[in-house]
Amino acid sequence: MLRDIITLIARFPSKIKPTGLIWALSALLLLPSLAQAQGVAIPNFWDPKAQLDRPDLPATRTIRFLVDDDFPPLHFPGLDGNPTGLSVELARAACERLGITCTIQVRRFDMLLDALNERQGDVVAAAIPVTADLRRRFAVTAPYFKIPARFAVRKDRNQPTPEAKALQGKTIGVVGGTAHEAFAKAFVTGTTLKPYPELAAAQAALKAGEIDYLFADGLGLALWIGGEEAGGCCDFSGGPYLESRFFGEGIGFITRAEDENLRRALDFALQQLWKEGKYAELYLRFFPISPF
Asked: Would the CA dihedral through 80, 83, 84, 89 be positive or negative?
């Protein structure tokens, strides 16, 4: 399930052609700021100059959040069996910040939007990529998370930072059919691209030294780099790539289109959680190795 969702987010239509072969760094969109805490880069998706108003919500209303439990570290079962993860705990923190009562209900990932549409819940808090089609059907908050593209390397190979000249003649692994492959084909010239059928195979190739760099989704790479399978072999190199045309707009809380007041209240709460340090606290809990 995890790999399927990452692939969904990373998929890029092959019919769209880039306007020119410009080096990837010109399309590197770093976040407005990256806070540093305990050696972990914490992304900031909120404009510090924007001052959002807090809409009034009926005190008697209970907000029902719908989540999936199969996409760590955003949403998954905790040790007690209850759902947890960054998305889930942000939902709980937003409710506390707004002073409203909320419940968390688990649904299958492919049933979440249908359940929301059928009024079985009020908000989806799951890793559903924001697209134009989603915005036509539902209301979505500003993103509270994005899945960046990243380069990974073996620690013992002393590969240079992935810049235009440094990558000349290098072999770069990608997952075939993803946005990462499309991005690399468009912008990373003078290299040999080696596609793999899935991320696990590409990661194994990097660990075995069969490729110089791996360019893939940062979330999957972060989980692998910090896990047992990598065995401490590898690390990120360079910064995050967030070109929305390739890698999506991110992930936000989803409400029904007519529930605009609730959407605005959640946007307000998320911004306040960032300003007050709660977002950073939760991020550090679930991302000991940051994809950023």
From this structure: negative
Cis peptide bond prior to 162, omega within 30° of 0:
no
Widest distance between CA atoms in the chain: 64
Whole-number Å distance between alpha carbons of 141 and 264: 7
- Long-range Cβ contact pairs of 172-176 (< 8 A, separation 24 or more): 172/211, 172/212, 172/213, 172/214, 172/215, 173/202, 173/205, 173/206, 173/210, 173/211, 173/213, 173/214, 173/215, 173/216, 174/202, 174/214, 174/215, 174/216, 175/7, 175/10, 175/199, 175/202, 175/216
Q: Which two tokens stand for residue 271?
A: 């911004």
How does strand 83-84 pair with strand 76-77? Answer: antiparallel
DSSP conformation class of 151: E
* pTM as predicted: 0.83
Q: Which residues pair with 123 in a beta bridge?
A: 65, 255
Pairing verdict, β 40-44 and 33-37: antiparallel
Across the 292 residues of the chain, what is the mean pLDDT of every consecutive 10-residue run?
Answer: 38 32 32 55 90 88 96 95 97 96 97 98 96 96 96 96 94 98 94 97 98 97 96 96 94 97 97 96 95 96
Structure tokens at 81: 């069996």
